[in-house]
Write a structure and sequence with these properties.
Layout lengths: L1 E4 L6 H4 L2 H8 L6 E4 L12 E2 L9 E2 L1 H11 L4 E12 L2 H10 L2 E5 L16 E4 L9 H12 L8 H5 L18 E2 L2 E2 L9 H16 L1
Helix pairs in contact: 4-5
Length: 211
């Protein structure tokens, strides 16, 4: 996974913690952060400009973005641009990237948007939801996290199988001790030792929550 961004420091946390850190150390995924600013030809290192025709804010220039992309793109690459125009991201798409894409490149827009001409150089526009973020970096983190955790060896296989969205249902309720917390008690069925009955209860609860 290669992420093109103006703010590489934003990714230090996600790459040095938890599942992604372990996946990198196991060498089951490689993640590269590319600073788009390194590719600007502007003598002041500017990567943005006022929109042609007027308007509020600043727009990312196409030249540094596309030169950064050219430096990392290969015949195996699938290039996605985080964009509100894109198809809404979901678990099915995460599986598609994991199963079918060898080299995923994610471009993060920022400011008021990105030069329209960049769209012609990407394979897909992707949105993480109908709301506005300051930039595409958080969306890129969401995609990275959701894909990496599906890779064989990143986490236990059984943990993935029972998660929400994996079988079209939300996951059933989970509990930890104590049994009674201020009158709110764990369902007795979970203490029965009858795994068939427990599984039936969990399936019923998954259906209830999903509905």
């Amino acid at each position: 996974i290669t992420i093109l961004t103006l703010f590489p420091e934003m990714f230090s946390g996600i790459l040095t913690n938890s599942i992604i850190k372990r996946a990198i150390s196991k060498k089951i995924v490689k993640i590269k952060i590319v600073n788009i600013r390194d590719y600007t030809k502007d003598k002041y290192r500017r990567v943005d400009s006022a929109p042609v025709g007027g308007g509020a804010g600043l727009i990312m220039k196409c030249q540094p973005v596309l030169d950064a992309l050219k430096s990392v793109r290969t015949p195996d690459s699938k290039v996605i641009l985080m964009s509100p125009r894109g198809q809404t991201y979901n678990q099915k798409k995460a599986h598609y990237y994991k199963d079918n894409v060898k080299d995923l490149i994610i471009i993060c827009g920022h400011y008021e948007g990105i030069d329209e001409r960049v769209n012609k150089y990407v394979d897909e526009l992707v949105s993480v939801g109908d709301y506005i973020l300051t930039g595409g970096e958080i969306g890129a983190m969401i995609i990275t996290d959701s894909v990496v955790r599906l890779i064989d060896g990143a986490i236990a296989e059984e943990s993935i199988e029972e998660e929400s969205f994996e079988n079209g249902l939300l996951e059933y309720p989970q509990y930890t001790e104590p049994y009674d917390y201020e009158g709110d008690k764990i369902p007795n069925i979970l203490y029965s030792g009858n795994h068939q009955a427990i599984n039936k209860w969990r399936q019923k609860e998954s259906l209830r929550l999903t509905r």
